[in-house]
# Entry
Amino acid sequence: MREILKAENLSKDYLINKKKFNVLRNINISINVGDFVSVMGPSGSGKSTLLYNVSGMDKMSSGEVVFQGEKLSELSEKKLSGLRLKKMGFVFQQINLLNNLGILDNIIFPAQMEGSQDRKKVKQRAVALMKKIGIIELAENEITQASGGQLQRAAICRALINEPEILFADEPTGALNSKSAKEVMDVFHTINKEGTTVMIVTHDIRVASHSSRVIFMKDGNIIGEKVLGELKDLDIELKDREGKLSKWLLDLGF
Amino acid sequence: MILKILKHDLLKKKIITFAVFIFIMLSAFLMAGGSNMLITLNDSVDYLFEKALLPHFVQYHSGSIDQVMIQNWSQRNENVKRQQNSEMINIPGSKIFINSQQAEVDTVMDLSFVRQNESFDFLLNLNNQIISIDQGEIAVPIYYRQRRNLVPGDNVVIKNEQFEMNFIIKEFVRDAQMNPSVISSKRFVVNNTDFEKMKNQIGKTEYLISFQLNDPARISEFTNQYSQSGLPQKGPAVDYKIFKLFNSLTDGLIAAVVILISLLLNIIALLCLRFIILLTIEEDYKEIGVMKGIGIAASDIRKIYLSKYIFIALTGTIGGFLIYLPARKLFLKNIILFTGEAPKSILQLILPLLTALTIAAVVIVFSIIILRRFNKISPVEAIRLGINAKSYFNKNSFSLSKNNFLNANVFLGLRDVLMRFKLFIILFVVFILTTFIIIVPLNFLNTIKSSEFVRYMGIAESDIIMDLRYTEGIQDRFEQIKTYLANDPDVLEQGAFVTSRYRIINQEGLVENIYIQTGDFSKFNVDYLAGQSPAQANEIALSYLSSSELNKNIGDKVQIIIEEERREMIVTGIYQDITNGGRSAKANLPADYQNASWYNIYINLNSDIAEKINEYEALFDNTKIIDQEGYLAQTLGDTIEQLNILTIAAIIIAGVVIFLITSLFLKTLIARDKAQIAIMKSIGTSIEAIKIQYITKALFVLIFAIFIGTITANILGEQLLTIILSFLGASRIEIIINPIRSYLLSPLIMILIVVSTTLLSINSIKKISLADIKVE
# Structure
């Protein structure tokens, strides 16, 4: 299997009131192309911090992250931005759409920022994505005219518009009801099936059960990993995987 | 809770709130200072006039006088309270050395040496006491103390080939008549004995025939009586109104400018305030909705916010007034020096405080008006959506997905300005104002500097202008020059004109003086506003001001008194003239050498002008010989220089204002847009891309404003200049624009300032991180 992302001895410290907090301690992790990795753990375990550090959004304190052979610590701010724009996609718990743009505009925004693409094709791709993800009827809407689940799906479209190599998601269903959450996870499943690597932070077993690997974190350390294997059929396997996962988590003390 | 909200709000927008405070403070400071200047000026001038026992009417006369005749006439005239004849020795600047090896050759002033007067028109010292001078001592006009930094003990030397006299400066003269620098005569006071020694040795004698009237309101009537009296009149006549006007002019103008700047700062403060309020409403939209939702009346919510702006307005104004108190003397320094200090009136204390408080009142009223918007906030919408859903622009018609040409960042910048134009109004208005402030003086300067300006000065275009003022034997000299020129092969053509004082019957049927230039106007013609030059002996052309004051138009008849007979003349033309107070006329009459005031000869050459000027200067004494540019430079030199300084000052002030407001605006905007910027950065938008968006916003507003500002400057500026100059005598001014300066350089300077300020102010977007999204 080809490796897309690797963290070596990755550490992150914060200074709060002159006290040092080790949020990440010597993390080592390797993600291959096509993986669907979930990061779980209790609040404050460092899972979101891990996501932001391996995606280059946050600056690590020590160690290294290698993305497609490139060491992130050696990249300039501009190159890091470029990398995030072209090769990575992001979905956030708080959705984070730009509130002065309409839904379609939010989706094509990264593609226009990227600059080199044919604008007609971008629009066609955005429309195709919206159709696929089931929000095509919202194309002309403002973001005040859609529900949370619809907006999160629009955010996923935005994350996918530049056809990224890897999709990072931080608690993407955290702010959604269970129906919306399921719709969103179905989308993630489909994307992954089509070849996009996915790394997702969640505390929800139902979400994690979609992934091929689950990493469990506590106090800034990875304390376990469960390989669930590829999810082939959403309807049949999901319950079983959820069961396996909760047992494993229980063993870890979650 | 109210205090908490206020504190939070003040801290959150501390930079711009502080700026509003400063603008209000400066505005109040200048308003108090400016109004104090006006009131003090008025009091001081009155007090000075009272102390100096200023004459109400003064007739200058060069030549001899018959004292007894004047006294007899005065005794018979019921208007006259006191009459006095004073002798003055006029000495050319080239013979006077004031604390320097260098003579006052370049001076524009007529310098006169006088004795202290006996009964009125006293020359005062800096304590407003009547000057008394010992032999060998001199009192020098304040004008020179200012220009030369003179102190008592410095020396003044007067000398020509045969005569020399040394003086030590004892005091400085506060001369109620001739104090202001705009009056081109200055009086030096010497001892009686010294005066007698100087007389007949140096300079020429002129008389001041002064009158104090029983009722100053009857000056016009008296002026008429005097002009018909047959008493000496070889020279200008001035009166009380002119003294008052000139004494108030310089400092009055400065006070007006100070007040104007104060108002401008107040406008900027109001714009900043409006910006803050709009941002606050946007940010607190949800909270305001919640408050309304739980039943708090809009008026009560408004009070919470209003209290903050009242607080800023009052502290700012009081702060400004408190700074004004110790700085008061600074505003009054010039006034106190030139006109002295009158006893304090209660108004002097109260008026500045009142005017400063009006600044606070304006700010508070303005805030109340803007905060009315609270009424419009719907609680349901606010709580549900959390943001103001109303847009000023149809978003769909201007969407990114429909943008096929523009760079996405440029497009987003433009879009934001159009969507949230209300926020950008502050920047827009400030940019228009600053464009105006730069362009108007620039155009004024260029117009006055251009050689075409001569057409507003009532003189014809020519290569050389000769100007002869009244001296002994002037008529012979004038004839000599004419003959010489007639025989000079380098002279293409010459035109000789004599300007004499005539009497004209005005609208009310009263007799008025008017300077009429006489000669042959078929050559060396001026540009006429209407009509043409007088050709026949019964034709006359009037200057714009004369025609409007006499209420005469082309074809109308005016009556002129020529050789004691009324003669009717037809107005054939109206021309512009800003020299000699703008009141003049031209007629094809035989020259009246008896009443001639000055002589002009216009010459066109077929050889080098500079060489000819040198040749003529060597040949003809006591004659001003200059080319057209030199004429403009001499006549308008001071004005041009002042305008130059004003233009540079305007550009600097505009630059500082642009810098301040742009940086304040953008810093606040970035703080407000923090979450949006954080989102853009998180999904990979580079800092450069975001910077382009903000530069686009600033530049778009600027370019739009420059466009509007330049058009208004060109239209209003021309009208403004026309209004100013029509008081002086030119009613139809064409602004001459230097396109490189006005249309290229000044916008370029503004663009440079805005781009660099923007880059400087938005640097903080580097530090915005994902954590800032939570601000939203």
User: Anything to note?
Assistant: The longest strand of chain A covers residues 3-16. Residues 134 and 153 of chain A are 8 Å apart (CA to CA). Residues 234-252 of chain A form the longest helix (19 residues). Chain A has one domain: 3-252.
